[in-house]
Amino acid sequence: MAFNANGIIAPLCSNNEEDSIFVWSSESMDELNECDGKMQTLQLNVISYLWKLCYDLLLANGENVLASPGFKSLGLRVNNKRRKLNEE
Predict the structure, then answer these.
(1) Cα–Cα distance, 29 to 81 (Å, whole number)
(2) CA angle 68-33-40, nearest 5°?
(3) Do residues 41 and 32 lie in contact, with contact meaning Cβ atoms separated by under 8 Å?
(4) Residue extents of the structural domains in the chain
(5) Coil, strand, or helix at residue 48?
(6) Angstrom distance (rounded) from CA 15 to CA 21
(7) Please, where are the H alpha helices in the chain?
C-alpha cells in the first residue's frame, strides 16, 4: 500500500461513503478533531498506522522491532470512550 500525500488523496480522506476507500466513523472523526493539525494529514497518518499494523501482523513475533504508539493510543482512547458509553 502506498499513496502520494501530495497527489489525489480525496478517496482516502473523504467522509462520503460513495467516494471513499475508507469509512470514517463519527467516533474516529471526533477523536481526530481533538488533535492538532490538518484533518487530511491526520487521516493519512491513521491510514499509515493501519497499514503498519497490518504489516506487523504478518511478521513473526521475534522479527517485529518497531514501536508506534500513535495508532495504538488512538484506538485505546476510542475503545475506552465506547466502553464508558456502554456502561452508562
Answers:
(1) 13
(2) 70
(3) no
(4) 10-87
(5) helix
(6) 10
(7) 10-13, 26-33, 39-58, 69-87
